[in-house]
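yo

u said u wanted the structure for the complex thing, so here. seqs first:
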Amino acid sequence: MTTLVPVTYKGGVYRHDEIMDLIDDLGGYIVQKHVMAQDVVLQSFVPRDDIEMIRRIAKPLAGEVIEAPLVGTEIAVVSPSLEIHHLPHISCDIAEYLRRSGAKTNMVGLARGFGKRIANLNDEERDVINEHDLAVYVLGNFEECIRQKFPAIRREIRVPIVVTGAPDRETLIRAIDPPAEGYVGGVGRIMHRFKRPEELGKLDELVDEVSRVLDARRDALAKDPLSVFPPRLMAIIEEQIHEVSLLTHPTPVTAQMEGLRVKLPYDSYADDVRSLEVAEGVTVGDIADVTPSRMRNYILIRIKPFSETRILV
Amino acid sequence: MPPLNYFVVESPDEVGRVAYERVAADVLQDLDLIKVVDRLHIYVDPKVPIFVAAGLLRHMPRAIRIADFANVNRGENEIVLDIGDETYLAPLLQKLWTIYGKENVDQPDRFTVVLPAGVAGEDDLDQLVVADPSETLYKDIIYALQYIAPEGFKVRRQYIRDGKFYYVASEDTLPTDIVETAVVPLFEKMGVTL
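structre next:
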């Protein structure tokens, strides 16, 4: 079986459809397509052995292919609030940087996440964060505050967490109990844009930490694979449910590591999605849970593992 | 940063102290207050929890007059204002409209305002006050301190008068004698009595 690896293709608009067709023909999937003026960015999964071929074909078009570890993941960037204290610089810079590595990021500004004694998390925030593949908690400058407030704002969060804060990594590890999955120290409340080399270095460190955590999750998934590869299901939904193409969202269907978020109203479309045929005699309902998302009225699809369905599409 | 004459951030947490030094410097710079604040002393202790900032203001910025940003060219029939810096163009137009009426204020392009000589001929346009930055300065200072202080510190006491200001904030109720116990010592360190 060919291994699909996440890559980003960057190139011009001119003849980019040929690259899209090529990825499709090779059995790859395009998870996200951005057209910005004359540039095109394709977040995609392509067979490992064919990357060189895509590079060769893209060369005359001045396109480049970069390994992007976070393609096909949806990450929540959790900020204690959306006040001027935390925005725009830290939260937005982090979200944007993760996006450049291929992730789909959503900013979650907590309603009452500030303060050390008064910080808390409500059920909607908890559920929304839990719908992601990973949460990056963007915390502040004081060890004492992180130690006290973090248990409150991570309560019942089941997805892996990567914490950032001003204290160094070791201090963060010491302050956080039970441990989080990843830590990046030296990034506190910063009131200016990340532009110095050491600040950009911290963002790279964050991307590495996030990919390390997600790779661990991918390894675990490889032991009990999903019944269908999420980007594949995404392609089927985009093909079969034509309303998806009418949506104006940047990513009408968002790929996650273990599922998809379809940005159609649950009440009207859930049954259509459930009865959609993925392969001969296999419907989405057989291999996945189609549930309402806490994010607006979207549909959240959680693909079941092979061990549960005994189906591998 | 900073041409402040005195700028100290104190905290029992060294990492936090350095971070707050940077935060305060960035905020003052962003809000263009470096030229206005003369001395600033910040004390922040998350264990108490308390945030105290005390400082002195430099002289107040003076009022902005037309001569500061535009040339007044007097012709026989009309007076042409040649705008050098657009920052105060909007308040200038507002001012001219109220004085001379909209029908008499013509703006053929972005950098030119024309008034008929018959209407405005006698007035000393050069010295017309267009804006007074000190009006909003107090608000700006308090806003800056609110911005610097940790967000959760919602209970606060603030003061700004006669060139001195302080800002105390906490997550918990502030004790009644907080000014005497926390603010006065900071002013003493700066060599000033409140």
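The longest strand of chain B covers residues 37-45. Residues 65-131 of chain B form a domain with the Gyrase A; domain 2 fold (CATH 3.30.1360).
cya
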